From TrEMBL:
InterPro entries: Class_I_gatase-like, GATASE, GMP_synth_C, GMP_synth_GATase, GMP_synthase, GMPS_ATP_PPase_dom, NAD/GMP_synthase, Rossmann-like_a/b/a_fold. It comes from the Bacteria. This is GMP synthase [glutamine-hydrolyzing]. Pathway: Purine metabolism; GMP biosynthesis; GMP from XMP (L-Gln route): step 1/1. The keyword Ligase applies. GO terms for cellular component: cytosol. Residues 199-391 form the GMPS ATP-PPase domain. PANTHER family: GMP SYNTHASE [GLUTAMINE-HYDROLYZING], GMP SYNTHASE-RELATED. Gene3D superfamilies: 3.30.300.10, 3.40.50.880, HUPs. The lineage of its organism: Bacteria, Pseudomonadati, Pseudomonadota, Betaproteobacteria, Neisseriales. It is an enzyme of class 6 (ligase). It comes from Microvirgula aerodenitrificans. CDD domains: GATase1_GMP_Synthase, GMP_synthase_C.
Amino acid sequence: KILILDFGSQVAQLIARRVREAHVYCELHPYDMPIADIRAFAPKAIILSGGPNSVYESEYLADPALFDLGVPVLGICYGMQWMAQSLGGKVDAGHMREFGYAEIRARGHSKLLEGLQDRANDAGHGLLDVWMSHGDKVVALPDGFKVIAETPSCPIAGMADEARHFYGVQFHPEVTHTRRGTEMIHRFVLHIAGAQPSWTMPNYIDEAVKKIRAQVGSEEVILGLSGGVDSSVAAALIHRAIGDQLTCVFVDHGLLRLNEGQMVMDMFAKNLGVKVIQVDASTAFMGKLAGETDPEKKRKIIGAEFVEVFQDESKKLTNARWLAQGTIYPDVIESAGAKTKKAHTIKSHHNVGGLPETLNLKLLEPLRELFKDEVRQLGIELGLPHDMVYRHPFPGPGLGVRILGEVKMEFADLLRRADAIFIEELRNTIDPASGKTWYDLTSQAFAVFLPVKSVGVMGDGRTYDYVVALRAVVTSDFMTAHWAELPYSLLGRVSNRIINEVRGINRVVYDVSGKPPATIEWE
Ligand code: XMP
C-alpha cells in the first residue's frame, strides 16, 4: 500500500484516485502524521502532495525521518519543495507565479519520465504538456539529485535521486490536464515502488466480508437504508457477509421520489432477501414541518425527526449492537481535513451521522476506504442494478428542500409526479453526439416546486395553478456546477407532459443558474 501525505492540496484526493486506478491500495493522511504511525503503516512508497503554503512557513512540515525509511518518495509541487529543502537543497520564493499549462522538456534518463512524451522538439527531446501551479521553486538540488525536467521559467521542474528512489515534480501529474500524469503515477507506484496491482473489487469483497464477520461475530447490525447509492451498497455488502444478522430500517419521511419506497423494498427485501423494516413516518414529518418556511429550520426539523424515528425503531431491535453506515472515503477525508481547512456552512447537511452517541451502538463502516466510483463498482459486483448504482444523488431531506417554503403533502405529491416525468424523459432521450442518455450526461436533475400560482389557459378554460422549475446540472464534484444545456426539444416535451399529466401545475420553467452563485438545490 501507498501512503499519501496531504499538505493541504485541493487535489490530494486525485492522487489517491490515480493510485487506486493502478489497482494499488493507498490512504491519504495529514502531512503531520507521526513517524511512528508511518512506520506502522508500512508503506511501499510515499507520495507528498502539493499545498498552498511556502516551505518557509514552518507549521507545514512533515517529519524528514520519512526519508530514512528506505522507501521510494514522490514529491509533487510543494511536496517536491519540502523534499528538496529537507534533503539539503534550496527553495526560493518565486517572483512570478506560474499557473496553468506548461510544456516541460524531459532531461536525461529517469525511471519516472523516460520514454514518456507528448511530442518531441527539433533536437529530439521529449516534450510533455503538464499543469503547473506554483510560486516558489527549487533552485538548488540536494546531494545525489539530478534534473529530470525543465521549463524556461523553471529550470528544475523535476528532480530525481534514482539510487534512493526519490523523485520530485513541480507540476501536477494527478490532474488530467497533465496528459501523461496518470502514467507517471502508475510508473512510480508499480515500477519504481514495485507495488502489486491487487486492489480489485472481487478481492475487496472477499476481504471486506472476512473483516465484517470478524468484527461483528454473532452480533446483530442495523443500518439506515435511504435508497441512495452508499447505504444501498453498504447494505448489500454487509448482507453478503452476515445475512440475517443485518436489519435495515427504511424511513419514509413522505419526501421521497415517486415509487421510491416500493423500489427499495423490491430491490432489497424481495430480490436480495435482506430484512428491511419500512417505517411510514410521513404524517409525523408533515406535522412537524407544518407552518415552517425557513430553509435552515426545515432542514433541522427533518434531521431531528429522522433521528427520532430511527431511534424508536432501533430500540425495538434489542439485540442490535452495531450501527452500519455508508460512510465513504471522501467523507472520511473531509471530516479529517475540516480541522485544517476552514469551511463555511452554506447549508447544514443532514446525513445519518450523529446517531451513534445516542444509540450506544458500535459503528460499522465497510465503505470507509472507497471512493464513489469504487462504491459503484462494488455495487455492480454485488448484483445491484445498474440504474440504482448510477443514480443521481438525492439529498437526505429529500423533497423537503425542493418544495420552497412550507412543505405540504399536496405539494409533495405534485412534485413527485412532475419529477418522475422529467427523469423518465432524461433517461429515454439519447444525445446523438455522444450516444449517451441525457440522464447519464447530467450529474443531477430534478424538479422544484414553486408555491406561486400563475394564470394559464387549457382548452376553453382559464387555469390558475402552481409552477415547477426544472434543474439539471453538470459537475464533477458538486462544489461548482454548470446548468446543463439540455436540448429545447427535450425541455419542450417535459414541459408538455408535466402540464398535461399533472393537474395543478400549469407552468414549467428551466433554471439557468450556475453554482456559484446559485446552489444546486433551491433551499
Ligand atoms: P448544494 O445545494 O449545496 O448541493 O449545491 C450540493 C450537493 O449536495 C446535495 N445536498 C445534500 N445531500 N444531505 C445530503 O445528503 C443534504 O442535506 C443535502 N443538501 C444538499 C445536493 O443534492 C447536491 O448534490
